[in-house]
Write a structure and sequence with these properties.
Length: about 180
């Protein structure tokens, strides 16, 4: 189990790193486009499509699993903290299972769409330049599939610790004696 956890953490770190690099590249690309447009009166062709189809999608979906692992997503805990420990444990397990199902479904559906776009060779024209956009459709299933795996792994951690439901809090599922520890 510890090897699986290490592998999952490594993949999450790679996705997060790629997301950070993508944001940096997007910043450079947009800056170069602005300079090119206002200094040389010649904007870089394809900037809008590349930013919207590649950079933004990658920046939004690749780091999702890292944000979830670090419990950085928005959560509302107005009533959750005053509930009895057993009910909190049940709710934590339910929401984690629901997240796994929802994001697995998103990964499945977006994979089908990506394959369709690949099959037809989807592209876009901007300033007379043909830009292949079909590869960007594979970013969404990659990000959502990894997020589904994080939820599934966290659910396994919750289930392996089911004897103490009051210890189940979102983002802190750890069953270190069992070798499961996604946090």
């Amino acid at each position: 189990m510890q090897k699986t956890d290490k592998l999952l953490r490594a993949i999450i770190a790679v996705y997060g790193g790629i997301g950070a690099v993508i944001i940096f590249l997007m910043m450079l690309h947009i800056t170069a486009d602005v300079i090119s447009k206002f200094v040389f009166n010649q904007p870089l062709p394809g900037t809008i499509q590349i930013v919207s189809q590649y950079y933004m999608v990658a920046a939004a979906f690749l780091p999702l699993a890292m944000v979830e692992r670090l419990t950085g997503h928005i959560s509302v805990e107005i009533l959750y903290n005053v509930l009895p420990g057993t009910l909190r444990g049940i709710l934590a397990m339910f929401s984690t299972a629901l997240g796994a199902v929802v994001f697995a479904a998103m990964a499945w559906a977006s994979w089908g769409e990506a394959v369709k776009k690949y099959t037809i060779g989807s592209f876009s024209y901007e300033q007379g330049v043909k830009i292949a956009i079909w590869p960007s459709y594979f970013i969404l299933p990659a990000g959502t599939a990894l997020l589904a795996l994080v939820f599934l792994w966290r659910l396994i951690a919750y289930v392996m610790r089911a004897e103490d439901p009051s210890a189940l809090t979102p983002g802190q599922a750890q069953a270190s004696s069992e070798g499961v520890s996604i946090d």
